[in-house]
Structure formats: structure tokens, C-alpha cells
Design a protein that fits this description.
- There is one protein chain.
- The chain is an alpha/beta fold.
- The protein has one domain: Phosphoglycerate mutase-like (Rossmann fold, 3-Layer(aba) Sandwich), CATH 3.40.50.
- 39% of the residues lie in helices and 21% in strands.
- The chain has five helices and six strands.
- A six-stranded mixed sheet has the order 3-2-4-1-5-6, with helices on both faces.
- Strand 5 and strand 6 form a beta hairpin.
- Helix 4 packs across helix 5.
- The longest helix has 22 residues.
């Protein structure tokens, strides 16, 4: 009799779990700054990634390989798009552009969409957006920081922020 009750409880929990996922009561937003940019070229306003930056982008794809994303967002810069591309390609998604000059509206869009997403931004927008999504005061971070992955988990009206630091170390001589 006890085994039947446990089995029935597991089935009910499983169905509840499926219902939660179907209704997207729980979703996760990952935010990262673009990978290392190449400042040794004439493309100073919109530089490409360094070789280290390209490797870091691949590491981001690996980090998110077991996460099923619904969308990938990037600003309209070479470095952000190239940081997002390996993850978007591996998930069969097209990169969607967002404007980084209206983060309040974009944060509301992300919450209303209720999707598991990756957002690639900049040192002066990634922390700010994470703060807007969680209701915490957060600002820009140093230009030499590339290893942060912000994870915002949303469950109904509750939001939790975790910050991961990637183990990937860059040995490029040019930032």
C-alpha cells in the first residue's frame, strides 16, 4: 500500500512539474557581457572579438549546452553578436537584437515573455539589467571583467539572482 501511495505521489508531482513548465511559471534569464574585444584594430567603435573572446564564446555555449533556450538576445554590435552566435547556433535560434538604451522597457519585455533566454550586453548594461530584473540596485562593472554569468530565476513574482564566474582563463596578450 505504501508503495502505491509513493508511486501516486510521484505521478502527481511529475504532472505538477509539467504543468509548471508548460505555464512557464518558472523561467531563467542568463545575462553576460560580450567576450574580449579586439582593441588593436581600426574598428575601435565596433571591434571584433579577440581569439580569446571567440574561445570564451564557445565556452559560454558549452556552459549553456544542457539549457534549452527559447531566445537569444544581443545588442547590435559585432562583439555581442559573435559572443551570442555559438549558443544561438547550437540551439537552432536566431539572435534577436535589443536596444541597450532602454533597459527598463527591455527588462519588462523579458519578464512578460516568460522565456528561458540568453542576453548578451556590455559592462555598463549587464549588471544594470540584472538589477532591474531582480529589483536590486546594481551598476556597471569594470571593463576588464568578462567572466560573469548572471542567472535570474523567475518564479511567479519571485526573482532570484545568482552570479557565476566562468573558469575559462584567457591568455591573449591583446584585450
Amino acid at each position: 500500500m505504501t508503495k502505491k501511495i509513493i508511486f501516486l505521489a510521484l505521478i502527481i508531482l511529475s504532472l505538477q512539474s509539467c504543468k509548471t513548465v508548460k505555464n512557464k511559471e518558472v523561467f531563467t534569464i542568463y545575462l553576460v557581457r560580450h567576450a574580449e574585444k579586439n582593441l588593436s584594430t581600426d574598428e575601435f567603435g565596433d571591434p571584433d572579438l579577440t581569439s580569446c573572446g571567440r574561445h570564451r564564446s564557445e565556452q559560454l555555449r558549452n556552459f549553456l549546452s544542457d539549457v534549452k533556450l527559447d531566445a537569444v538576445y544581443s545588442t547590435d554590435y559585432i562583439r555581442t553578436k559573435k559572443t551570442a552566435q555559438p549558443t544561438a547556433s547550437s540551439q537552432g535560434l536566431k539572435i534577436q537584437e535589443y536596444k541597450d538604451n532602454d533597459l527598463v522597457t527591455f527588462s519588462k519585455t523579458l519578464i512578460d515573455a516568460k522565456q528561458d533566454v540568453l542576453v548578451v550586453g556590455h559592462s555598463n548594461t549587464t549588471g544594470v539589467l540584472a538589477g532591474l530584473l531582480t529589483g536590486k540596485e546594481m551598476g556597471a562593472f569594470d571593463l576588464d571583467i568578462y567572466d560573469r554569468i548572471y542567472q535570474v530565476i523567475v518564479y511567479k513574482k519571485k526573482r532570484r539572482l545568482q552570479i557565476f564566474h566562468s573558469a575559462f582563463e584567457c591568455k591573449d596578450s591583446i584585450f
